[in-house]
Fold this sequence. Notes:
The protein has 225 residues and is α/β, with parallel strands linked by helices. It is 47% helix and 14% strand. The chain has eleven helices and six strands. A six-stranded mixed β-sheet has the order 5-4-1-2-3-6, with helices on both faces. Strand 4 (122-124), helix 7 and strand 5 (150-152) form a beta-alpha-beta unit. It is globular, with a radius of gyration of 17 Å. The mean pLDDT is 91.
Amino acid sequence: xxxxxxxxxxxxxxxxxxxxxxxxxxxxxxxxxxxxxxxxxxxxxxxxxxxxxxxxxxxxxxxxxxxxxxxxxxxxxxxxxxxxxxxxxxxxxxxxxxxxxxxxxxxxxxxxxxxxxxxxxxxxxxxxxxxxxxxxxxxxxxxxxxxxxxxxxxxxxxxxxxxxxxxxxxxxxxxxxxxxxxxxxxxxxxxxxxxxxxxxxxxxxxxxxxxxxxxxxxxxxxxxx
Length: 225
């Protein structure tokens, strides 16, 4: 007997250009999408969270097929996890060049926990191969191992200019442009090829990834879209 796999994903969403486009593409393919946002409000202020909410609400307000699919399949609550305190652990000199990789590894581990709570089978990101240091092929491998959910990367091979064109067509581009708040604590020269053993040693030195993620999850909350 053929069993149809459920199409449910947890989407890591920010106020940037890529993640709303990734969410829209999966909605168009009939996926149910639950959204997860990582807040650094203690350091950056509320702008990133406000932008993220505005972007997802824009998708819900759209006319046409995409708007109908969003209202049907985009979950109306977004999970917010404050993570600034945990990220500061990786600004120490022994971890700072790998900061963005540690950050994404933490995102994926927490995404795994929240995704499973939402009955998700996949973890959706707006990653684009080689666009930034954490999105080189080797570093994405070190990141995706932190989640048992199947990765969904619908923008992986697209040229950035094409992603911007898609964002403009969706009407999300003007909402997304501005400062990248996730860069607030990052290094000037991040590594592009991380060593897994060193990553794990640094994370253990910072208290352990399971501990850091568990600590962050105690502060999670949900907002209505």
